[in-house]
Specification:
Strands 1-2 form a two-stranded antiparallel ribbon. It folds into two domains: 46 residues, no CATH class; 41 residues. The protein is mostly helical. 66% of the residues lie in helices and 6% in strands. It starts with 12 loop residues before the first strand and ends with a helix. The chain is built from two helices and two strands. The protein is elongated and about 80 Å long. A hairpin with a 4-residue loop joins strand 1 and strand 2.
């Protein structure tokens, strides 16, 4: 069934793909719903961030030290294993 645009009123938007007329206030209503959802989300984020237990400076410095030392030890371990495996493979391929 083909829709005829001659009997449609000129007010409002028209979706040419779907062949339906969108009432004039609908985009504004949808925009307001989206805006209110965004506002609600931001408000909820602020409330949740107030519940967070933030670390103090000394705890943060200690944790950073642990991460740096652990990363260095892991890098040394991986480099050692890589060296051993590459030497073993080179001996096998001779």
């Amino acid at each position: 069934m083909e829709a005829s645009s001659s009997n449609w009123q000129s007010s409002g938007l028209q979706s040419r793909v779907l062949g339906v007329r969108i009432p004039p206030g609908l985009p504004l209503i949808l925009h307001m719903k989206v805006f209110s959802r965004i506002t609600k989300f931001i408000t909820e984020v602020k409330v949740e961030l107030q519940k967070v237990s933030w670390s103090d400076r000394n705890e943060l410095i200690g944790s950073t030290g642990v991460v740096i030392i652990s990363t260095a030890l892991l890098a040394i371990f991986i480099a050692t294993v890589d060296l051993i495996i590459s030497r073993f493979i080179s001996i096998l391929l001779r």
